[in-house]
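Our working data are protein records whose layout never changes between entries. Getting from the letters to the tokens is the skill we practise here. To make this concrete, we reproduce a full record directly below:
***
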Amino acid sequence: MQSLLERELVVVTGKGGVGKTTIAAAIGLLAAHRGLRAIVVEVGDQTRLPELFGHPPGQTGAENKLQERLSSISIDPDRALLEWLQALGGRVSGRVLASSGTFQYFAAAAPGAKELVSMVKIWELTQGRRWQRRAVGYDLVVLDAPATGNALGMLGSPQTFGSIARVGPIAGQAQRLRELLEEPERTGYVAVTLPTDMAVTEALELQDGLRAQLGRTLDAVIVNGLLPQRFTPAELRLIVESSGDGPDAGGSAPPAGARRRGVAADAVVRRSAAQAAQTVHDRARFQHNQLQRLRRRSFEVAGVPFVWAAGMDLPAIERVAEQLGRKL
């Protein structure tokens, strides 16, 4: 299988709240560690990555260096539109067209216009020859896409505009975008999910949407926040039995006198520990059943362990990147 890091573009999406930004940042970091020049793209006025890497908040629309060989950008559709128009018709005519009331109305009213402009900017980031002469090129562009439904709408914008504008520069750009998104050698698609029924169902719906819209399938599904399976069934049975709740537990009463309260308290602690072990075991088993649900669909599945921390920081993302490097 062709590695994700060998593509020009990797699109990361999934249900909201599953950790897409973390995984996108980890993929970008992994690429940088492998010697590639990578950029992680945020959309929708999100500028979280610079702060995550210890930098001041980034300016929307600007490319921010996060560390050696790794950058980020939060796309500003208005700025991207101006850059595109200038590339099409020169600096002066681009500004005139962008400031015209008629064009502004079209850009605001046409369905998918902002999504198309954002996708054009993403395409431009994949090019060796950039719109700005001094702009660097990238080996890999990682798109931290919106949640599933909005991501499919964004990915479908070239097809929408291609059917409206059949000739001219917009039609030509829409066709180039479609070629980028449809060619497996150039673009990879990654679903991020949690090991829950709803999130996994949305990943399966994403697969169906990609196939219907672009004729593509998911290259990988990354399951975030997995709990370890700490006990075998035999070990868990011993834990329960030792708590005093199992079938072989002794039924003798605690000794009379001063030790009675200490023995009773110890029994309560053992029962609580056994119940906690049972709960964690059941939850981990359910999560791993969700993994098997994905594997039955022949997906390339990679699990990322649950991070026991108040929030994600750079060391945590480094660990996630290391995990992905072993599995993808």
